[in-house]
Write the structure tokens for this entry.
Amino acid sequence: MSELSGPELLTKAHDFLEFDCGKEPLNVFLTRHALANQANDSARTFVVLDGDSVVGYYSLAVSAVLFDEAPSRMAKGLARHPVPVILMARFAVALSHQGKGIGKAMFKDAIKRALAVSREVAARAFVVHAKDDDASKLYQHFEMEPFPNSPYHFFLLMKDIEKALGLRA
Ligand SMILES: CC(C)(COP(=O)(O)OP(=O)(O)OC[C@H]1O[C@@H](n2cnc3c(N)ncnc32)[C@H](O)[C@@H]1OP(=O)(O)O)[C@@H](O)C(=O)NCCC(=O)NCCS
């Protein structure tokens, strides 16, 4: 492992075609769809690099949770409209680089980026959709709150993120 850099916005200059995190849908998203999603403004992908090679990535998009499906803490005090959130739609580290703290660092970076966005265009929460039980355990480990009726969906309120970062009393 040489010196790591990023996260930075994915570009076609990056070397990402061999990316393998062990989960095919996440490999396919990066290698085939991430740049197209960026070009059509449906998701932005940020990558961690080892040299020129992508060894980790996450993708962010604006999303919304239907009011009736929002956890009570998320919906509290809001009108009955869809609740604006930032969705981390994909999150993966290459097999060759797992277990070295890259995922944790990328998660913190994604949260900080979402918080910065929410200060310009309000978003109530940072949300993830776990793809399987393993990913669910990871988001529990990261102390995200589960949606009560949807065990694969997790969230952090922006106000809790601000408190955790010491930016709000
Ligand atoms: C999940 C993934 C992104 C973690 O990346 P990583 O770089 O290996 O994670 P880190 O080394 O930063 O580990 C961070 C912490 O999470 C823990 N952790 C890692 N994977 C975990 C899992 N599946 N369940 C519970 N905890 C997990 C680590 O033990 C570590 O704990 P610590 O900080 O208390 O020591 C990576 O394993 C991966 O890409 N997996 C395949 C794709 C995937 O499942 N993505 C999830 C999104 S659906």
Summary: The beta strands are 4-9, 44-50, 53-65, 83-93, 125-129, 145-147, 150-157.
